[in-house]
Amino acid sequence: MKKILIVEDDISIHQLLEELLQNEGYETYHAYSGTEALLLLEKEAYDLILLDLMLPALCGEEIIEKVQDTPIIVLSAKSSLEDKVHCLLSGANDYLTKPFQGKELLARIAVQLRSNQASFLDHTLKYKELELLNDQHTLMISNEKVSLTKTEYAILKQLLLHPTQVISKNQLLDFISEDTEDCSEYSLRVHISNLRKKIKDYTSTPYIESIWGIGFKMKE
């Protein structure tokens, strides 16, 4: 299930967005200020962000400049060309002016999620010494091929898609469920442990970091 973070301080608009998205099968999360949004993004990864610009504490433009790994659709009452161009050049993926039609928003969300997924299918995911070859389902470390199981590959891919964010245990369990029947926190720990051992055979860097009580992330 795709996870969408709604960053909107207007409660009525937030509720409308939440109902619209949940009816389409999306899992929604909310932040009512810019600082709250950044705190959530530090703790967990999301598939897409719906972002208002006029927020308390930290404005939407500042959030766009700080977020690197997640698609952003701006939803704003600011309608000037200058505002749109500034946000898009700063890193936003799309810009929709309020008020907007629900069907159009859903279409734009679908496009961004599809594009974000497709952008990784034909490319190598790189993180320091690690290279994950998506077309070959292969991990390379310093030009050495590392053999991974389907589940280990799925876990590492999810971590590398969001290298600066914490991936929760539930997210990883959902992601590997197609490759591992009856997934549990115990089986996840086993897969993570095996993956760490394989990486350790080729490098002394402990790449996968445990965040107590939350999940895992790539070690900076």
What would the keywords be for this entry?
220 residues; alpha/beta; Rossmann fold; Arc Repressor Mutant, subunit A; 2 domains; five-stranded parallel sheet; four-stranded antiparallel sheet; 8 helices; 12 strands; elongated
Basic shape: elongated
| Total number of domains | 2
Structural class comes to alpha/beta
Radius of gyration: 19 Å
Query: What's the CATH class label of the largest domain?
Result: Alpha Beta
Calculate the terminal CA-CA distance, rounded to whole Å: 28 Å
CATH homology superfamily of the largest domain: Response regulator
- What is the CATH T-level topology of the largest domain? Rossmann fold
Mean pLDDT score: 87
Write structural notes for this entry.
It is a single chain. 44% of the residues lie in helices and 22% in strands. With 220 residues, the protein is an alpha/beta fold. It folds into two domains: 3-120, Rossmann fold, CATH 3.40.50; 122-218, Arc Repressor Mutant, subunit A (Orthogonal Bundle). Helix 6 (150-161) crosses helix 8. The model has no long low-confidence stretch (mean pLDDT 87).
Layout of strands and helices, then pairs:
Layout: E1 3-7, H1 11-23, E2 27-31, H2 34-43, E3 48-51, H3 60-66, E4 72-76, H4 81-90, E5 94-97, H5 102-121, E6 124-127, E7 130-133, E8 138-141, E9 144-146, H6 150-161, E10 167-168, H7 169-176, H8 185-200, E11 208-211, E12 215-218
Parallel strand pairs: 1-2, 1-3, 3-4, 4-5
Antiparallel strand pairs: 6-7, 7-8, 8-9, 10-12, 11-12
